[in-house]
Amino acid sequence: MDWRTQKRKVLEDEVEAFILQSVDWGLEERRLEDFNRLAMKVFEFQYSANPEYQAYCKKRGKTPERVRDWKEIPAVPVEAFKETAVVCGPLEDAVQVFRTSGTTRGSTRRGIHYLFTTRLYDVSLLTHFKRALLPDRNKMLMGILTPSPELMPDSSLFYMMGKVKEVFGAEGSQFFLSERGFLLGEFLKWLEKVKKSGEPVFLLGTTMAFVHVRDEMEKKEIRFRLPPGSRVMDTGGHKGKGRGVTRNEVLHLFDEYFGISPEFVVNEYGMTEMGTQYYDAYLGREEEKGERRMEGSEEDEGKISHGKFRIPPWARVRILDPLSLKELPPGETGVLQHLDLTNVGSAISLLTEDAGYRVANGFILSGRPKGSEARGCSIAADEFLRQRRTSTELTQRQGAKE
Predict the structure, then answer these.
(1) Contact yes or no for 188/176 (Cβ under 8 A)
(2) Rounded-to-5 percentages of helix, strand, coil across the chain
């Protein structure tokens, strides 16, 4: 067995135990020492197991001997996942491959996240999902407005939907997007049946899928008042081809057309390049009832308002100045850096192109920085890829000498 595989499995065991022990902690409790200890272990492993990442860290003067805090761990720009395999082990050992949608730069340059196991992805997903969305029950009838993972096995979102349906979906749960397209008629019939049964239902899907359903329901003059306890998880952003909606409009959509009030609508934020998801509410928590409102101004420079995304104990989020990449104080908008303990086999620290700002116990998304504002991210990506080329050239020269 490759040494990287052995070490990775040991770390995966530690991270899994940490997640299972920490999921019931309060929002304020973080056990920073335990988190930092694990983060340092994973960083040391990734530094040793990925020559490209090691060269990138050395260029920044950030070696395991010098780094003492998770905030100092060099972040891999998500752009790098489009150019190289960000892995800490033999590529042929990957058991799952997730690809980004390629919507921003075309399908030919899609980011790829290789997973050597789905174990940490699954335990993070299921424990956090249960806490945020199903605190009051173990299973619910689910109507899912995405394709199944069988139709698109390289989509992390559809994998997520398939896993939660498998574990938490009651009998009769189903997907309503197939190779034939969106099954609108079947979905509306299913909703009518649900309404008559009196059993609460769980709707899941992309935000824009629900917007399109609303458009069709409006044309047909259809409205539902789904049973009490029904809820929604929407994800994927608020912009479609040639249109966009605010978060408040989305909340109004579910209230008016499905009879689901805003306190039972939860937005999810995740990335192909990481295994942890964030939710903008935890259902059933008394201390959060006063927070189910929109933060930020929807009129402010055209930003789309979101709720506050909660950070689980096995992850951290920093907000960085998009030029200098220095950490910003709470309330100031910058680019997001994620530290995700589930990413043992790839990169624990990620520099994104998403913009947002910190608030107490979470963060607010505010789109993406424009033009030159994202220069720091671009420079970081160029530096990582330059180290990749240098590392490859050295390996080739050493091979030629042998």
Answers:
(1) no
(2) 40, 20, 40
User: Out of 10-14, 204-208, 390-394, which region has the weakest mean confidence (pLDDT)?
Assistant: 390-394
Give the 3-state secondary structure of residue 350.
strand
- Whether the predicted pLDDT of 289 surpasses 90: no
Q: Are 380 and 75 spatial neighbours (Cβ–Cβ below 8 Å)?
A: yes
Q: CA-CA distance, 223 to 258, in Å (whole number)?
A: 6
For strands 334-340 and 349-359, give the pairing. antiparallel
Cβ neighbors of 215 (< 8 A, separation 6 or more) are none
Backbone angles phi, psi at 200, to 5 degrees: -65, 150
For 164-180, what is each residue's pLDDT tens digit? 999 999 999 999 998 88
How many CB atoms are closer than 10 A to CB 208? 20
Which residues face 239 on adjacent strands? 244
Instruction: Give the residue carrying structure tokens 């490759």.
Output: 2
**Cα dist from 381 to 63, 237, 252, 352, 388, whole Å:** 19, 24, 39, 10, 11
Q: Which pLDDT belongs to residue 26?
A: 53
51-59 and 32-49 helices cross at what angle (nearest 10)? 110
Which conformational region is residue 101 in: left (phi greater than 0), alpha (psi within -120 to 50 degrees), or beta? alpha
CA angle (390 as vertex; 396, 271 as ends), nearest 5: 110
- DSSP string for 197-220: HT--EEEEEEHHHHHHHHHHHHHH
Nearest to 313 by CA among 11, 69, 32, 119: 32
Give me the chain's average pLDDT, please: 86
